[in-house]
Amino acid sequence: xxxxxxxxxxxxxxxxxxxxxxxxxxxxxxxxxxxxxxxxxxxxxxxxxxxxxxxxxxxxxxxxxxxxxxxxxxxxxxxxxxxxxxxxxxxxxxxxxxxxxxxxxxxxxxxxxxxxxxxxxxxxxxxxxxxxxxxxxxxxxxxxxxxxxxxxxxxxxxxxxxxxxxxxxxxxxxxxxxxxxxxxxxxxxxxxxxxxxxxxxxxxxxxxxxxxxxxxxxxxxxxxxxxxxxxxxxxxxxxxxxxxxxxxxxxxxxxxxxxxxxxxxxxxxxxxxxxxxxxxxxxxxxxxxxxxxxxxxxxxxxxxxxxxxxxxxxxxxxxxxxxxxxxxxxxxxxxxxxxxxxxxxxxxxxxxxxxxxxxxxxxxxxxxxxxxxxxxxxxxxxxxxxxxxxxxxxxxxxxxxxxxxxxxxxxxxxxxxxxxxxxxxxxxxxxxxxxxxxxxxxxxxxxxxxxxxxxxxxxxxxxxxxxxxxxxxxxxxxxxxxxxxxxxxxxxxxxxxxxxxxxxxxxxxxxxxxxxxxxxxxxxxxxxxxxxxxxxxxxxxxxxxxxxxxxxxxxxxxxxxxxxxxxxxxxxxxxxxxxxxxxxxxxxxxxxxxxxxxxxxxxxxxxxxxxxxxxx
Length: 616
Ligand SMILES: Nc1ncnc2c1ncn2[C@@H]1O[C@H](COP(=O)(O)OP(=O)(O)O)[C@@H](O)[C@H]1O
Ligand SMILES: [Mg+2]
Known about the structure:
The chain is α/β, with parallel strands linked by helices. Helix 7 runs antiparallel to helix 11, helix 8 runs antiparallel to helix 10 and helix 15 crosses helix 17. The chain has three domains: 323 residues, ABC transporter transmembrane region fold (Up-down Bundle); 176 residues, Rossmann fold (3-Layer(aba) Sandwich); 65 residues, no CATH class. The strands form two sheets. A six-stranded mixed β-sheet has the order 6-7-8-3-9-10, with helices on both faces. A four-stranded antiparallel β-sheet has the order 2-1-4-5, with no helix packed on it. It contains 21 helices and ten strands.
């Protein structure tokens, strides 16, 4: 994406998200600006520190000058060199004191700064859409956040303690040499300007490579996290070897990018080393010839050679640091370009925290597709009355979950509107919408926190008793009581330490606690055994009381008693009515009902759809 298009008007951010700039440079400036007084202090200390360091050869020169000029015997030599010696001592002490003070400030600042950047990126990421999150690796995103935050602090540290001090060394060295012999200053000055400009030019060219290398690295991290998450699946499919090879493939891709980037950096190093050597040799020859012609004193000769050696060692440091700097800048760019993308679904400025009183849901001429190729809903219009309990049935892939996702604003329709109580859901804040709709998904995932925390997620201020009561209603209390730590047990990442049915019951308990006016169950009881399901059904019926309810069900028997049944077929609602009415119609629903030997809906056979079923 070009710089221009990412800063165009269409770049929308959620109001809750920090206004992070979308380019690496402005991103760094944004965060440095937040701590600008700290950085100003550090820069001042570093300037003094670097100046002290580069003045040392000057002090040595003065000492030598006084020694060679003096006629007193060596016993009183200290009297002769007292002043330059004091200067030398002061400079040495200054180098230590100012250098370490700058270091101390950086040590204090960096962890705070890094947390601040992490906090902002995380807050920004939180507002990304379901679509964004489901098309990224969670592990890679997490890694990018931390690499970006680390990158900013490291970049600043390098710019201040490495690059700035090099520039100061050049400037002061040139001034000192100018005082000695102007042409010598011209030699070093021209060299320094050329050196920095060419290094900079090479650096900008290298950025493309280092960015690609960073992207490849975080891709690897993402793949590893994904593979570790699915390790059990790999084992059970006997695909451990396959996974290693899969990772090797990625390593090969990564290595290709990293090699390119490293080779480029190596070429830069060659340039820097060669030009440093040229400077070293030419200053030595040049000042030696000046000295032999009597144009400069011995002291100046010492100053000139030691200054040039100092510059060269700084230059070598610079070349080593460049590599790191590119890597950090690459990481920042990678993180910024990935995370600081426009938010797809945001609250409008005029959005209100509407309180749902009735719970009427209306789809008005909704058109929706996930991708351009295939439409899921074509002009769908339907109204669900307040307090109505509606069952959705249809083959898998017929659009039931999509219907639910649209109500929850996981996606926005391409055209048409969805209303709750006559209010367009796009005119409500998402927080208001989500806090008033409960969803029990097919495969609820839990936090790797204790069971009580997971249930209390439904209502944060619920007391322990209320949590336990909800758990009891969801038939979760008994199994929780049998686990070693009871409600304080950790459930494993995403809740893996529980069975699907147990996780489901936790999810139900949390929704009972939430007690929102609209309740949606998306195949929520499908992973329960039929005995638990029957038991829970009563609880759910109780929980449905006085609410608008949408139940997507696999087992038709679980929805037969609801007020209304909608039959979905390829994104269309082909039948609408009560169980009895639909049976009497002897249409699609009737056939489905007949087909369900044990009360299950057959999984979609190849391209089989309702119309085919109807004609059978
Ligand atoms: N996140 C998604 N991205 C792209 N296509 C999707 C996504 N989710 C569902 N689909 C597609 O949309 C259609 C409807 O899916 P869905 O609403 O999940 O059906 P159901 O819940 O009835 O089984 C299917 O063809 C499915 O492949
Ligand atoms: Mg579904």
